Amino acid sequence: MEEIVKTILAIALVASQMTYYEAKVTTFGCTSIEAVSQLQKVRSDEKALDAALTEKQLYGECVAILKGTQVQGSIDAADDSILRVNEQIEPPGYEAPLEDFETKAMDGKHGD
After folding, report:
1. Using only C-alpha atoms, what is the Rg of the chain?
2. Tens of pLDDT along 19-36?
3. Strands 70-75 and 62-65
4. pTM here?
């Protein structure tokens, strides 16, 4: 029983560690998974997406994330298609579509 608990704790620790990601495309981060879902539904229509994202930005629900932007992130425990970004930098962070990001290897250089 003790080994199972240690294994679960080790998995939880690894899952909670922050990883760095880079936006492969211009995307968005929102304060809720529901807002991300709403934007993803209109994503194929660029004008509709721009209008919806602008409205959500005005209400403080979402932010734009430019292509090439590096963020700290962790995959959402409840929905593995969602990346929670900048949780430690800008609490509580933003929910963003995981598919828009790629893992960024940190080689010790911080690209200042």
Report:
1. 16
2. 899 999 999 999 999 999
3. unpaired
4. 0.76
